[in-house]
Every structure is written in C-alpha cells, then in structure tokens.
Input
Amino acid sequence: MFKNIIIATIFTSILHASPERGEIIYKQMCFTCHGPNLEGGIGPSLNDDYWQHGSSPQAILDTINNGAPGTEMIAYKDVYPAEDITALRDFILSQQAGFREVVRSYYADNRFLGEPLTPELFNSTESSKQTPIPENSLWIDHKHEGGVRMQAKLYVKTPGDYQFKLNSHGRTVVYIDGEEVYSYDPDEPQEKLISKTVKLKSGTYSFDLLHESKKRHGWRVSGSLVNLTGGGSFRLHGSSLAGSIPKEIHAGPNAKVIRKWIRNIPPRSLLCLLPNKVIVSFNPEDGTVSHAWHGAFVNQTPSLPDRSAAPSEVKGSPISDLGKSLSKPTKFDFIAYETQGDKAVIHGRVDGKLRALTIAPNGSQSFTITTK
Ligand code: HEC
Output
C-alpha cells in the first residue's frame, strides 16, 4: 500500500513536469543560444512557425534529449534528468501560438466530387502522399488534382472570438476539435458560405482543413484565422522555406574557395577558406587581397530571421595587416582557381606572364601569399 503511494507520487511528478521548472532551466542554459524570449540567436527561434526537427511534443523532447549532431545543440540527456527535459519541453510548448505539426495529405483523382467533405470521408480514403510541413503553413508543392487535407495542432495563447477569412479556388471545409467552423463551395451561392465565430480559450486544438477542386491549381487556399476581439491573426498560408534552413560554411581540413555576394567586398571576390579558420577575400579583377578575417566562417542565410534577401556575411575578426609585401600588380588577368590540400591556388596572368598565387595558412590567425 505504502509502496503504491510512493510510485503514484513519482509518476505524477513526471507526468506533470512543470513549465515553471522548465523556464528556470531555460533561463540558466538555453537562453544564451535561443534568446531570452525564445526568439533565437546562435540557435533557431523556438516559438516561430518553422521547426526543422519537428514541432510535436515528442519531436521537441527528442531534440532536447539527443541534440542535433554536428551543431552546437548538444544532447541534454547527458546534462539533465528526464523530468527536467520534460519540464523544458513543456515550457517551450507553453510559449507556442499558431499552427504546429502540420501534415499535408494528397488524395488522387476527383473521388470527393459531389460528396460532403467530412473527416470521416477522408479517414476512409487512402492518401497518395503524406508530408509533414516543417514551416507549419499551408502550401502545395505542385499542381495537384483531387483532394488535399491539412491536419495540425492549433496553439492559442490569446483567448477570444476567432473567425476564418479564407480565399479558396475549390470547396473547403474547416473543422476545429471536430466541429465544422467554415465551409465554402464555389458552385453554391455566397449566402451558403458558413464562417462561424468560434470562442477559443488558450490551449491546444485540433485543426482539420479539407479541400477539393475540379481543376488543377498550384495554390488553392489562402487566408488567416483572425482574432475578432483582441486583434492578431494566424496566417494559414506561406511559401516553402525548403532550402532556406540556416547554412554556414566553415573551413574543413582542406582549403575551400567560394564566391558569395557579401556587402562591402568587391563583387567577384573569391573567398578562400583555410583550415586555420582564416578567410582571405581575393579580388580577381585586380589581383589583390581586399579583406581577411581569422576565427571566421561564412553565414549564407543571415536573411532567415527577418525573411529578407540579405546577402551572405563573413563572421570573424578582421585581419588588418594584409601582407605589406603584396604590391598591386599593374595588370592581373584571372584564369582559374583550385585548392591543393590546405592551400588555395589562383592562376592568372600578372603583367602578361602566367603566375600561380598560393594562399596558405600561417599559424592560427594568419596566412601567406607566394607567387610562382
Ligand atoms: C550552444 C548553443 C545552444 C544551446 C546552449 C542550446 N541550443 Fe538548442 N539549438 C542550437 C542550435 C545551433 C540548433 C539548431 C540545430 C540544427 O541546425 O540542426 C538548436 C536546436 C534546438 C531545437 C530544435 C529546433 C527546431 O527548429 O527544430 C530545440 C527544441 C532546442 N534547440 C532546444 C534547446 C534547449 C531546451 C536548450 C537548453 C537545455 C538548448 N536548446 C540549448 C544551439 C543551442
């Protein structure tokens, strides 16, 4: 009897890992990389729509436990007991607002034509493809004929009266927690549009959007769920962020040469990444080194946090002494570049003669250039 009570107590403390405890640990450890308000920094934002490793409670728990190998996100199961990891996960979940765990299913053919669109009908039909959408927005990756279903969890933080404002090219029905809240059929008169006002408390709801159209469209449903009382809204559509996952280029054991658009350096510059983390920016138009940095890497996607089109940037400490011995050639004609082990070699004609300029690492914070 006594034993049972103890077991029951332990279980409750595990199942109800407190978000408050999670917040305390977050503020001791995670904020340095994920920001004091989960807005991101060195690590990604933990409260926006985009979840590279999955937004489900289990996926978030797995990421915290196992980390993301090869990144600064270490496996925290080696650092904290399981209850603390669950508390961290629950704190993160308590900070979410919007659609999460979005899964898109395609259904072939026009088999839903004429049938009322209900979750039961879709449940009883085999989907041809099911894809989790890490950006948690509704988008369709190719022209598809037939039915589409978007299932998600809806996290509401601000309670209020909400209503769907959608544009649809075909029939669309939306269910929240199993209740039909929106229904549109282009073949029916506008009066038949159902767009109920729903009272949502803060919490998590299941969201189910069912769609079917007679014609192929690349883009069929757009709009948002609008909070009529407190303002604010959840956008339902967005574009694919595939390919804009944060990307950094670091030096490896061998030299790398890349070309990137970087503010304030000459446009055609070759960035030579040396294994000692020195980056040398060589201008092939005039044969000079315009900039160099140590402890450096290239961030290809500084545009991600604000979704802008910002150019790549070099992160590192500038090297001010760019080799005084380097005199500017009177004429440089660039031919090609290559790498040889830890060195970058640039071929060109200097004052009409074939030359190879070798850029090599020198110590931990410097480089040398030799001409042959
Ligand atoms: C030293 C920096 C650093 C610290 C400290 C850190 N993280 Fe991370 N975290 C990262 C990076 C970088 C990534 C992205 C990994 C990738 O690119 O795959 C990440 C990813 C994540 C993700 C997955 C996000 C997604 O989009 O799927 C979660 C969840 C997460 N971290 C939680 C935590 C928690 C909780 C803590 C504190 C216990 C923590 N992190 C501490 C750097 C850090």
